[in-house]
Amino acid sequence: MWSRILKVVDWFSDLSERQRVVRNFNLAAREAFVKGYAPTLLEAKTTYGDSSFRHDFSRFMAGGFRIKALSGRALERSEMVEIGNVVLQNSELVRKLISLGWDTLEVHDNTGYNGLKWQLMKYGNMGGYLS
Q1: Cβ atoms 21, 67 nearer than 8 A
Q2: Average pLDDT of the segment spanning 86-108
């Protein structure tokens, strides 16, 4: 019985931490845009993700971490790649996203349906020794 209660508590704490990651990303992106460090406003949210990218910690129907660029125009592929690389080159952030159940990074603009996606496990430097 107690193990069931602990699983529920863990689930709610993970959910709370996932919401905190999204909220903190959005606050930092908003501040960078307002101060002029970033040329466009970014907004993160959780989506379904790509089921072919699932891993052992993936959240059912909530494995996508989507970043939407509120640029007012269609972004070029190179611009979406640049936004994605900011996340993917931060291995600590990628590992945090993986540990909290995200398996897909998505980058979209706010005018079209085109976007890019990456499998987070390929960028988490998993399986090696820590230095």
Answers
A1: no
A2: 94
